[in-house]
Amino acid sequence: MESLTELLVDFMNRMKVVGEAGSIQLAAGLDLSLTQVCSLFILEISDHALAVHELAEQLGLSVAATGRAVDALAKEGLVSRREDVNDRRVKRLTLTEPGEALLLRLTEAHRDGLQKFVALLTEEERKDLSGVLVPILARLRDEARESG
Prior knowledge:
Elements (H helix, E strand, L loop, with lengths): L1 H17 L2 H8 L5 H12 L4 E2 H8 L3 H13 L3 E5 L7 E5 L1 H24 L2 H25 L1
Antiparallel strand pairs: 1-3, 2-3
Helix pairs in contact: 2-6, 4-5
């Protein structure tokens, strides 16, 4: 298991150079912290409008720190806050159109980098990698649905 872990670390480090340079440069050019960018991605994949405390739990941060990050995102117009219909003390968070557009730009930059990586592979390697990734991703999606 340790050798596979080391292979994955090496692979991910090389992917950062080949496949993620463009998205990292784009993200670095934003006036956003890593926490704020992560918050946007979490809100994007959530199946419901998250409360600040739910987002904090997923980020592994305090509610206060998450609240400050969300305040800045709302100020930039990337996130909107609205009162929960059942509890006015709770604020629900959703992405705004500018927030969605920003994530789309980041995702496209990431996709472009991954296409460069895929182009380096032989046809057989592409087939083999797809064959391995499809069942793993299906299991990870199932686990996320069950735990979510």
